[in-house]
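> call design_seq(struct)
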């Protein structure tokens, strides 16, 4: 669900996070990654390494169990 999202950006070398989606899905998909992380902090660490997060973009993290384990 979009309300489960965490948005990650990197500005000035600092990782910034906000709750919720960056924009609606149909407006922003440039690709996606599926990865397994121990917790949200680990997923944020990976997202902060994605070049788009460091180059003015944003990476949205959503828990997969909210989508595939129902």
């Amino acid at each position: 669900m979009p309300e489960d999202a965490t948005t990650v950006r990197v500005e000035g070398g600092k990782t910034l996070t906000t709750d919720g989606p960056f924009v609606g899905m149909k407006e922003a998909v440039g690709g996606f990654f599926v990865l397994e992380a121990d917790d949200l902090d680990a997923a944020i660490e990976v997202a902060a390494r994605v070049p788009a997060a460091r180059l003015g973009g944003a990476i949205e993290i959503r828990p997969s169990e909210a989508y595939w384990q129902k």
